[in-house]
Write a structure and sequence with these properties.
With 450 residues, the chain is mostly helical. It is 78% helix and 0% strand. Among the domains are: 93 residues, Serine Threonine Protein Phosphatase 5, Tetratricopeptide repeat (Alpha Horseshoe); 105 residues. It is flat, with a radius of gyration of 35 Å. This is Putative Tetratricopeptide repeat like protein 27.
């Protein structure tokens, strides 16, 4: 056949496929007048087998410049760019792939990972949403989704992603950094909400005081008038009120007429108008301050969203605590979550499980292990103190905290005595001892008075 049509690039490529000789692909490229995308794709695949990522990328670029409608080639090009540390070009390649093949789950997953590396959280979240839509059984895709959602501040979505990772991996994949990020996010959101609520309350008080001051100034500055002047002014006020009532009636009638006309518009247009009317800034304002109703609604909405996020994070943490890969860190995070929810007893129990899990670690010898044990022990002691503060604990709890702290300090004295972590734990022990002495004194006083 080549004797008959020696310039047919397809035949040269077929010969290369049969023999494995890449020179036949080069011949196909040359005889096609540098127009055979097939030849360049074959050269690219050969370079991939050799793990020559740079050469493969060059061949794919030439092939796609001639024939761009090959999703697999775009995917391979993106992979080659990744292997040669060209992340921006890799994003472009995977973006083109997803445009050609919108249900390509791997392409979306890689694009999401690249946006995460670039710190573009919203783009990463959008790509991750598409990735999990088309790769619902991939825990890796869900982990990227959770990471992107967490970075974008979508805490409820992040918690859902973590739960999917745990479920799909049967608890063997434990994304501890994401769990920690969830608890940190809930804590941060709660602090921010309290600050906003306090600021709104202060603004409302200031606005009320300003209005009251203005009314007093107006009353104090009104000149004394005789009866005739007062009668004339009352008459003028009545006339002005009548005029305002007439104008208001006319406006209401005009508004009714306009509303009647609006109802004849298409439903899509009506929906758009309603959304536009609900945009921030269109709420009627009082002079000198933000709309009180809008501020209250915003605070209530934020509080509802935070409650939903906290519940979702709690579900993820409880699932992690029951997973085969559960470790001490998970119990510590769960304890923090319980404390945020005001569940002092559950917080203490979870933190107690954390320090028990750390008992087998070499904390008496290794600095990192001791730092972890010291932090967990201090946190557990705080949980005991909180339990007593809310009236749910007693002398036995404070005694248990004191004995644990003394035991840890004694075991670590030789290796870490005098160090910063050791001294901080000593301070926590003194705090517990003081609380225990105070509790016993109050109990004795109460017993004596009875």
């Amino acid at each position: 056949m080549l004797r008959v049509t020696p310039d047919d690039p397809k035949l040269w490529c077929a010969l290369g496929d049969v023999t494995g000789d890449t020179s036949h692909y080069e011949a196909a490229w040359a005889r096609s007048g540098r127009r055979s995308a097939r030849a360049q794709r074959s050269l690219a695949r050969a370079a991939l087998k050799r793990k020559d990522w740079g050469a493969a990328a060059g061949h794919f670029e030439l092939a796609l410049a001639l024939s761009p409608l090959y999703p697999d080639a775009w995917f391979s090009l993106g992979y080659c760019y990744l292997r040669t540390d060209r992340e921006a070009k890799a994003r472009q390649a995977f973006t083109k792939l997803t445009q050609l093949e919108p249900d390509h789950g791997e392409g979306w997953a890689n694009l999401a990972a690249l946006w995460l590396q670039a710190g573009q959280w919203q783009q990463a979240l959008s790509a991750s949403e598409q990735a999990v839509k088309h790769k619902r059984e991939s825990w890796q895709a869900w982990e990227n989704y959770a990471a992107a959602a967490l970075r974008a501040g979508a805490l409820t979505a992040a918690a859902r992603g973590v739960q999917q990772v745990l479920q799909l991996s049967e608890g063997r994949r434990l994304p501890a950094p994401l769990l920690a990020g969830l608890v940190d996010g809930i804590e941060g959101a709660r602090r921010a909400l309290e600050v906003r609520k306090a600021a709104a309350a202060a603004a409302a008080v200031a606005a009320g005081e300003e209005r009251g001051e203005g009314e007093r100034e107006a009353a104090d500055g009104r000149p004394q008038q005789n009866g005739q002047q007062q009668a004339e002014e009352q008459q003028q006020e009545q006339q002005e009120q009548q005029k305002q009532q007439q104008q208001q009636q006319q406006q209401e009638q005009q508004q009714q007429d306009e509303e009647g006309e609006e109802m004849e518009a298409p439903g899509e247009l009506l929906g758009l108008l309603r959304m536009a009317q609900a945009l921030p800034g269109d709420t009627p304002r009082r002079a000198g301050g933000p709309p009180a109703a809008a501020a209250a609604t915003s605070a209530e909405s934020d509080e509802r969203q935070l409650a939903q996020a906290a519940a979702a994070a709690g579900a993820a943490l409880k699932a992690a605590a029951n997973a085969p890969a559960c470790g001490p860190e998970v119990w510590g995070l769960l304890g923090r979550w319980y404390a945020l929810q005001g569940e002092a007893t559950s917080a203490k129990e979870a933190l107690l499980k954390q320090v028990r899990a750390l008992q087998g670690s070499p904390f008496a010898r290794e600095p990192a292990a001791f730092a972890e044990m010291a932090a967990a022990s201090a946190q557990m002691a705080d949980a005991y103190l909180a339990l007593v503060a809310v009236g749910q604990g007693g002398a036995r709890d404070l005694s248990a905290a004191r004995m644990h702290l003394r035991g840890v300090l004694r075991q670590a004295e030789e290796a870490f005595g005098g160090g910063e972590a050791h001294e901080k734990l000593q301070g926590k022990l003194r705090e517990v001892e003081a609380a225990e002495a105070e509790f016993k004194a109050k109990a004795a006083a109460a017993a004596g008075s009875s």
